[in-house]
Amino acid sequence: MKTYELVDEAWLTAGPDAVWEALLGELSGAARWWVPDNTFEPVDGAPDRVGALTRITVHTKGVDKGGKKLRFTARTTAVQRAERLALEYVEGAFRGTAEFTLTRLEDGGTRLVMFFRASPQGQLAFLARLVDVGAMHTRATRAAFGRLNQLLSTGTPAASGAGGAR
Fold it and tell me: Model-level pTM?
């Protein structure tokens, strides 16, 4: 079975507290910067509470554009405010872990890193033999981080989502 070990990062102009609040907002369903690729819905509490479940939907063609929707559920396993949020994928299209780390930069900005270690399940395991799911994940994550940087810099999400992600 294929396992993805991906690292995506961005250097954001906002400080860790603002990035943390935006991350928690998105995982709580705000749909401000990970859309059109992903949406999030809390199942049983805030995502910064250990044990909380969050339902994730990957919209392969974008929200409301048709296409396959990949659904999975993450359980929060560790929280260090404005520094680290760790998740375990416990059901659905992926099994594995994700971790977000936030590091304050000398200029007051934040280095945001997402570590994604997961294996596709069910129909996605078959699809992963035909499509580069890892590349799709990285593209969507980097675009989302770019939109986050734009949102935190100007208050308005960028349409292209390219700024700041690496």
Answer: 0.91
